[in-house]
Amino acid sequence: MTKPPTVALLDLDLDGRPCLRWADALVSLGVPIVLLTGYEPDIAPSLHAGAAWITNPACVDDVLKALSAAVA
């Protein structure tokens, strides 16, 4: 059995491919997710309402802080 990741950083729309299916699967495994996207937080389904949300363009420090907070 493969161990799930500690945390996942996902873009909601990477090159025209939505990642919500991946986000759903990770959340169902108990993996915290951080969403990095140009979209506004209100487009995310309620399942992901508790996910950290970083709006692009983002600085590296903001991404690292969100990832650290997600696993704390």
Summarize the structure.
The protein has helices at 20-28, 60-71, and strands at 8-10, 13-14, 17-18, 33-37, 52-55. The protein is of the alpha/beta class. 17% of the residues are buried.
Say which CATH homologous superfamily is assigned: Response regulator
The name of the CATH topology is Rossmann fold
- Ranges where pLDDT stays below 50 over 5 or more residues in a row are none
Number of helices: 2
Q: How much of the residues is beta strand, in percent?
A: 15-25%
User: Helical percent range?
Assistant: 25-40%
Q: Count up the domains.
A: 1
> Count of DSSP E strands?
5
Name the CATH class: Alpha Beta
Radius of gyration, Cα only, in angstroms?
12 Å
Main sheet summary = 3 strands, parallel
Distinctive features:
2 helices, single chain, 72 residues, two-stranded antiparallel ribbon, alpha/beta, 22% strand, 5 strands
Question: What does it look like?
Answer:
The protein is of the alpha/beta class and 72 residues long. It has a single domain, classed as 3-Layer(aba) Sandwich (Rossmann fold), CATH 3.40.50. The protein has two helices and five strands; from the N terminus they run βββαββα. The mean pLDDT is 83. The protein has a three-stranded parallel sheet, sandwiched between helices.
List the helices and strands and how they pair.
Elements: E1 8-10, E2 13-14, E3 17-18, H1 20-28, E4 33-37, E5 52-55, H2 60-71
Parallel strand pairs: 1-4, 4-5
Antiparallel strand pairs: 2-3
